[in-house]
Amino acid sequence: MTQIATNRYHYRMLPGLMMQASNYETESVCAPHTLQSFTFTIAGGTPAAAGLYTAAFVTPASGTLTVSYTSPGEAYAAFVANFAAAGNATIGLGGNMFMFTSDGAAVVTATARSANLDLAVPTTTVPGADTLTAAEATAPGAPSLRMGLFYVYGTGTQGAVTNTPRQARPAALPSSATLLADLRGVIGRPANQTQLSPDFNDAVSFDQFRAGQVMPGVLRDEVAVVVDPASGTMDIDSEVYVVIASGVYSTIGAVADAADGANTIRIDNSPTGNILGRVTAIEETLTLGTQSVRLVMLKVNRTN
Q1: Average pLDDT in the 291-296 region?
Q2: Where in the chain are the domains?
Q3: Higher model confidence: residue 137 or residue 21?
Q4: What topology does CATH give the domain 37-138?
Q5: 26 - beta bridge partners?
Q6: Three-class SS of residue 180?
Q7: Buried b or exposed e, range 201-233, using 16+ CB within 10 angstroms
Q8: Quick one: which of 224, 232, 234, 256 has its CA closest to 243?
Q9: How far apart are CA 63 and CA 287, in angstroms?
Q10: What is the mean pLDDT of the chain?
Q11: Contact at 8 Å (CB) between 44 and 73?
């Protein structure tokens, strides 16, 4: 069966869609990400020259926001502490977009609060012969996690986009080192789609969670799972293999109906006798704009 429509709300099956039976179970996981950070290094001779030091950040929504600090002429340790304090006190920048810290020696680090922030290296001005060198310490990174793929626990930053107190384990796609016990569940679709980013409903990309978003990991329920393009047709009697490395199959985290050596893990007949996933309905193909994806309904059964 092939569904063709102009809006996701018209579909009977969507990637990560959960049936939410009375005994369904989910866990909160977050899309992995790397926060952007900049360093500002003072040099030129201690003590720092007296005068005005600035660092200008060009932002997409608020224009140029500038950290300004007038030094009385002080040791580097005092300078970096005071410059970091000035950064945190800059309206619209400190606390909202970046967190400034000093190393107590000669470097101030500005770390982004949002996983989706990607700015150019700030420009600096200094008095006298001193230098205040700005550099990007870490580039922002946001691996995409498509709905309807199997995931494992990842490593790295935990929490929501702005590192709020709400914590969630980072999720990641399987890898060649993944074992059956490592597979957690399927990246699900929230029942309330207002939780998704405003631009998720387009016709040029797969449904996925943005960096840092907290999302439901489906541990036990019937859920629509992505079928690898190279798989045979999946039906109720099909074997179920999760793709953990490229080979015959190319979509990591998707399922297929036949093994590909060490590149797949069978989950409908595991060695321990515990079935992690089985097919409950013949697959369907969903087409929207330039995107087309095969989906199969699996009954997954991973308990904590």
Answers
A1: 86
A2: 2-33+143-301, 37-138
A3: 137
A4: Immunoglobulin-like (2.60.40)
A5: 218
A6: helix
A7: eeeeebbbbbbbbbbbbbbbbbbbbbbbeebee
A8: 256
A9: 40
A10: 84
A11: no
> What does the pLDDT average to over 79-106?
94
Query: DSSP string spanning 229-291?
Result: TTSPPP-TT---EEE-S-SS---TT-EESS-BTBTEEE-SS-TTS---EEEEEEEEEEEETTE
Residues linked to residue 55 through DSSP beta bridges, in sequence order: 67, 124
Residue 149 tokens read as 């793929």
Which residue, among 116, 110, 134, has the nearest Cα to 124 in the 3D structure?
134
What pLDDT, in 10s, does the model give residues 36-67?
999 999 998 889 999 999 999 999 888 999 99
pLDDT for residue 143 is more than 80: no
Tell me the average pLDDT across 140-165: 70
For residues 214 and 216, give the distance between their C-alpha atoms in angstroms, rounded to a whole number.
Answer: 7
Residue 28 phi/psi, 5-degree rounding, is -85, 125
Token pair 């996983």 is found at 115
Report the alpha-carbon distance of residue 204 to residue 243 in Å, rounded.
24
Q: CB-based burial of residue 177 (10 Å sphere; 0-12 exposed, 13-18 middle, 19+ buried)? A: exposed
Report pTM. 0.69
Instruction: Tell me the sheet residues that pair with 53.
Output: 69
How far from each other are the two terminal CA atoms of the chain, in whole angstroms?
35
Confidence band, pLDDT 50/70/90 cuts, at residue 190 = confident
Predicted local distance difference test score (pLDDT) of residue 137: 96
Structure tokens at 192: 């309330």
Q: Is the peptide bond before 190 cis (omega within 30 degrees of 0)?
A: no
How large is the greatest C-alpha to C-alpha distance in the chain, in angstroms?
78
Name the residue type at position 284.
Answer: E
